[in-house]
Amino acid sequence: MKAITTAQMRELDKIASAEFEIAGVELMRRAGSGIASVVSFIADQGRMGDVFVQLIAGRGNNGGDAFAAAWYLHEDDFDVEVLLAGTASEVRGDALRHLSKMRQAGIPLHELPTMEDWEDAVHGANSAMIVVDGVLGIGVNGPARGPVAGAIHYINAISEDNVVISIDVPSGLNADTGEAPGETVVADVTATIGLPKAGLLVPKAIRYVGSLDVVSIGIPIELANRYESDRELITGWDVRRHLPRRPNDAHKGLYGHVLVIGGATGFAGAAAMAARAASRSGVGLTTAVVPRGIYPIVAGASLEVMTHPVAETEAGSLSAAAWPAWEARANTFDAIVAGPGMTPHADTAAWVRHLLRTCTKPLLLDADALNVFEGCADELARAAGPLVITPHPGELARLLGCTTAEIQGDRETAARRAAALTKAVVVLKGAGTLVVQDGKPLHVNLTGNAGMATGGMGDVLAGLIGGLMAQGLSPFQAACAGVFLHGRAGDNAAWRRSQASLCASDVIEELPSVFRELVSR
Questions:
Q1: Is 500 exposed, middle or buried (0-12, 13-18, 19+ CB in 10 A)?
Q2: What is the pLDDT of residues 327-359, one digit of tens each?
Q3: What's the CA gap between 459 and 485, in Å, rounded?
């Protein structure tokens, strides 16, 4: 989904009103309804029970969205109250109409027109469980002041004990640049209205944005297509297009066969999780090739996978001597994943180089399969077939011959450079995972959370993307779908279990519910 500027969003609102006769008050109502749905989803995922929702509103249109959301939440039997950064007499236009409707429903409104009021509110705050930030919208051009600054400080001060959801943009953030000129709300989720704003997708904004959802307000897609964008957000709508209904007479042969190659003594879990994630992708068949010593572990951990033991080195990794028996079979699979748990043994390099040179089917290289090409990224451009690489920042630094700090200092440039050198689809993992292919706009994924910063997550992602490629998605489509599904499963698992205790197996187990969110069967 295209990322647009604030000026373009305002223009779209005007066009929607003029050409499609969608009044501003109706757009605000739709925004409020969408925000309420996001709150309800999170409350349900987190099993929060009788959750108390506190909405913090400004006096402008962002506050109007909050008033509309409060009414919908009240109608859905949530316990709701609204804190206003100012006085009701200062609210105008469409926002006033939704404020009036909210008050008529009996929803408590507390006016806090001074900084002192907000300071007192911090000291008297209760645990709301969900706090909705509707203080400032896309019009911010400098640091917040007065009661608005007080409201932002209040939200951040109580965020330790509450989930924070920002409407459109985290209050205080510049929606075009991603700059935070003053104190800015740090959200767990940002529910942006209509289309993603360009500033939400830049790396420096991610610490404020959290996970990013898009709330539809009915602006026709053909209007958005009038604008050019070099950056796009990966959304559930994008993924859903590649998951068509399965025919009633379907059989496993229709959905591809993926091969996972990896594992070594001490790293059996990496290969097992990659294979298990591939099996959860919707693929018809999954085969894993692993060193003989870890065969019982991998086979026992992934019952749906056809696991094959092969000769191993003295270090317990894949032996190059096993390659000839699999060389002829490699191209009978629909996609291959290589790397999870392989270890940097010399025989690993032999396996990977053989695959790169002879495999004409979509190939994904991860972890130590990428480290084979340290400082030699251009060698990957000689792949015999379509290629996806899934480095974390350290692996990409080794590939490009620079430091991890340099990669993190400009992730977008680094990912684009890697795509140009390797001619591969590049998935640069991390907060705000990037999917890049030469000649395409940069695609940003903003599902996922800090709980996913733990071992095994990359193995799950590699298997998931490989399974999607085996089903016929192009490498770029599979990479985009994979990172979205992976992050969304991580988000849902974190709501259910907490970020602190999240592990990679939780993400695999959550994948079915994420698919169920996107498709009706």
A1: exposed
A2: 989 999 999 999 999 999 999 899 999 999 999
A3: 14
**pLDDT value at position 396?**
98
- Is 242 within the bounds of a domain? no
- 151 in the Ramachandran plot: left (φ > 0), alpha (ψ -120 to 50) or beta? alpha
What percentage of residues in the chain have a pLDDT greater than 70?
Answer: 100
Average pLDDT estimate for 361-375 = 96
Calculate the alpha carbon distances from 445 to 200, 214, 301, 432, 506 in Å: 11, 12, 29, 5, 20
Residue type, 85: A
Domain-located, residue 208: yes
Provide the phi-psi class of 439: left if phi over 0, else alpha when psi is between -120 and 50, else beta. Answer: left
Q: Which two tokens stand for residue 240?
A: 């859903």
Residue 19, pLDDT > 80, answer: no
Structure tokens at 262: 């990896």
- Shared domain check, 195 and 51: yes
Is 29 among the domain residues?
Answer: yes
Is residue 217 domain-shared with residue 272, that is, in the same domain? no
Q: Report the number of distinct structural domains present in the chain.
A: 2
Confidence class for position 392, pLDDT limits 50, 70, 90? very high
Kindly state whether residues 208 and 297 are assigned to the same domain: no
Range of the domain at 114: 6-231
Comparing CA positions, the residue from 399, 334, 333, 404 lying closest to residue 366 is 399
pLDDT at 462: 98
On whether the pTM is more than 0.85, the answer is yes
Q: What is the CATH number of the domain that holds 139?
A: 3.40.50.10260
Characterize the bridge pairing of strands 425-428 and 433-436: antiparallel
126-130, 154-158, 496-500, 510-514: range with lowest mean pLDDT: 126-130
- Residue 17 domain-assigned? yes
d(Cα 65, Cα 25) in Å, to the nearest integer?
A: 10
Q: In angstroms, rounded to a whole number, what is the distance separating the alpha carbons of residues 301 and 276? A: 8
Q: Read out DSSP for 379-442?
A: GGGG-SS-EEE---HHHHHHHHTS-HHHHHHTHHHHHHHHHHHH-SEEEE-STTEEEE-TTS-E
Burial (CB count within 10 angstroms: exposed 0-12, middle 13-18, buried 19+), residue 300: exposed
- Do 50 and 167 reside in the same domain of the chain? yes
